[in-house]
Design a protein that fits this description.
Helix content: 40-55%
CATH superfamily of one domain: NAD(P)-binding Rossmann-like Domain
CATH architecture of one domain: 3-Layer(aba) Sandwich
Shape: globular
CATH topology of one domain: Rossmann fold
Amino acid sequence: MNLLVTGGCGFIGSNFIRQRLTERGSPLARLVNLDALTYAGNPANLADLAADPRYVFAHGDIGDATLVARLLADHAIDAVVNFAAESHVDRSIDSPEPFIQTNVTGTLRLLNCTKQYWTKLPEPQKSAFRFLHVSTDEVYGSLAPGAPAFTEEHNFAPNSPYAASKAASDHLVRAYQHTYGLPTLTTNCSNNYGPYHFPEKLIPLVILNALDGQPLPVYGDGMQIRDWLYVEDHAAAIWLVLQQGRTGETYNIGGLNEQPNIAIVNKICGLLDTKSPRADGATYANQITYVADRPGHDRRYAIDCAKIQRELGWAPRESFATGLAKTVDWFLHHRAWAAEITATRYARERLGAKG
């Protein structure tokens, strides 16, 4: 298989690429990573794999039709996995336009190029071709306490500019399948966490702020509930959907781990108290600071992933306890990676904790 991955230098994309290039018996002949290297795209995430003869990096935007068309043709691409997206809710509230440009217009142009390429493929390559679009549970809106988790049939009700842009891209992918027959797949995931997580998001922000002696910002009362999915479980699910999913279908991918934000912060503090104690012997929980809530902050997300479990036999391997411990260990051993990002890529003090 020749695979085009977009946004592969980001958090989830780089974990997906790493998994694909390091697994035994991989069917990949070539993996092309197209990334614009915006603030969250980091080539260091894949630096140790750059010499793999199967790996090709292309610096560019999914909205560059000429570049995308060339990559598809030159590398005889058999499948596209689209991770490329602006994804931070706080940033979308501050400035929605980049989210529309990348998540909507960019996805539209990527779909157009892919359709034109796919239409000209001979059989059996044409029938085997797939376009997988990676999306989020935030397109579904917010759940009341005790309400059933989001299924694939849940109505879209996005509540932030980011969520609205992802909902629009999901609709475009569906339309290209319905109108043109493009063999698409869509996955909607819950909150990811794990290695290479960009430090503006809740879990890495708390880990790094704690170690630096900085406040641990918690929005509002900290009782916003999210379903947490270990990124390597997510990457494995995407690969399974790409290989075995039914075209035209959506698959929800969740971690089966609903946790309020404040519980996440306290669990991280407890792990750090054991693994890297403060010099003064106090608990890191003393650094917790409640800040004004995000505008329109959704109270609860939860994913019902029964469909992918039933149809494809997938289930998350990591419990939240094991996944969080692995994540804390990773950040403890990769301080230099995080320090480079926080020093050069964004002003951490401006951002709250996303969750």
